[in-house]
Each structure stands twice: as C-alpha cells, then as structure tokens.
Write a structure and sequence with these properties.
- This protein is α/β, with parallel strands linked by helices and 250 residues long.
- The protein has helices at residues 22-33, 48-55, 80-86, 96-101, 106-118, 131-135, 139-150, 178-196, 216-220, 237-249, and strands at residues 6-11, 37-42, 60-63, 90-93, 122-127, 160-164, 204-208, 227-230.
- Strands 1-2-3-4-5-6-7-8 form an eight-stranded parallel β-barrel, surrounded by seven helices.
- α1 runs parallel beside α10.
- It starts with 5 loop residues before the first strand and ends with a helix.
- Bound molecules: phosphoenolpyruvate (PEP).
- Phosphoenolpyruvate (PEP) is lined by residues 11, 165, 170-171, 208-211, 229-233.
Length: 250
Amino acid sequence: MHVRRKLVAGNWKMNGSLDGLNEVIAIAEAAREASGVDVAICPPFTLIAPAGMRSAGGVRIGGQDVHHRASGAHTGCVSAAMLKEAGASLAIAGHSERRTDQHETDAEVRAKAEAGLAAGLDMIVCVGESDAQRRAGDHSAVVERQLAASLPDDIGGAELVVAYEPIWAIGTGNVATPADVAEMHAAIRAALVARYGDAGQHVRILYGGSVKADNAAELFAVADVDGALVGGASLTAAQFVPIIEAAARS
Ligand code: PEP
C-alpha cells in the first residue's frame, strides 16, 4: 500500500493582484489546519514573491510555467532558478492552455519538466484529451502518448506530479464522471509503474477540470485521485478552502 499525500494546487492563470493576496492569507490559514494535505497556489510570476511572503509558509507557491534553459536570450521567459529565487517550490508544465496558445509540444513540456526537476522544483505535468478526441474514443491513446513524450525519464517519485485535465472540463463546469476519472487515473498509474517501477507509485495524479466545493469529495474518493489542480475555484478562499477540507477528509 503506497500512501501519497493529497495535493490541492490552485492555478490562478492570468488573474490576481497585490490587493487580492488577502485570499492567499486566508487559504494559508486553512491549509495549516488541513493535516495530510499539501496546498499550493500558482499565481502569475509577478505575484510569486509577495504571495510567498504573505502566506508565510502556509501554502506552497508555484509557477505556471518554466523555461527549459537556465538563462539567455529568451524574452518574456522565466527559468527554474528564477522561480526558486522568487520563492516557488514547484511549477506547472504543459497546461492545455499553453499547449494551445503557445503551441507547446510534448518535447518542450518534457524539457521544461526536466529543467524544473534538475533545479529542485516539484513539477506538475498536465495531460488531457480534447472533446473531439474523447468523442472519437481516442482519449486513452492521446493521454498515453502525452505521458510517454512529456514526462522525464529520471525521477525519484514524489517530486513529479501528473495532472489529468480533460480539456473539455476546464473552465466549462462539465466535470468528468467518477467512472471516467477512475478509468483514466488507473491507466495513468499503470503507465507510470510500467515506466518507473516502484517510483511510479509515488507520483501523485491530480484531476483537474471544474473542481468545486460540491464535487470535490466525490472526486477525491476515486482510486488514484491524489488531489486536484483547480483553476477558477482557487481564486478565492471561500471557494478553495472547502476543496482543501474535502481533501483532508478523504
Ligand atoms: C485548470 O485550468 O487547470 C482548471 C482545472 O481550471 P478550472 O478548475 O477552472 O476548470
């Protein structure tokens, strides 16, 4: 039996402001009470340092992206060492919005994950199928291909996190059914163990896609759901704290 701590991570996307960091303080207070749960907030780059200071260690702070190179002529990009210096201890790579908007490929996502891990960040690597791919019955094959090409080869275990985020569920209010989540998370776990052996049992698999207070408990009860990557509902303590509490009860 492998015990994995639940991780509830908030992705603020291009939202938030210095004024809004009171939410982080309230989230950090709840996170301190939630035994057995890791809580993280990934704000825009500009808010990483102030969010870390305001939360005073109550939540982990992460980047929403990381460049695969350490430094150089890459306008607008931020390296893993820069994230760490700002106070981040983790980062997301391969969110579907970046795969679409910035045309990020699996190979680039993998390079980002490798760079983050090498610098000592925990890395959340996102995978997930589109609505058309699911309707065509290709969802499992798509996710297996993304895992094979987006994940690094050398891992210890818990520093790598996979987020299964069906694109059709992100920001839409359409949540995958527990049966769909169970099927995909079991397939992801099997792929991780086939590739990494026992270390694959330590990789946490998050579900992401319209997680809210009223569906979190049901999702956390599904086997191999080790937490959630939360977008919209992570922006306020009022919506995010009940999700953290559901993870603590699960
Ligand atoms: C996300 O963007 O990673 C996400 C899961 O968003 P939401 O919770 O808003 O669907």
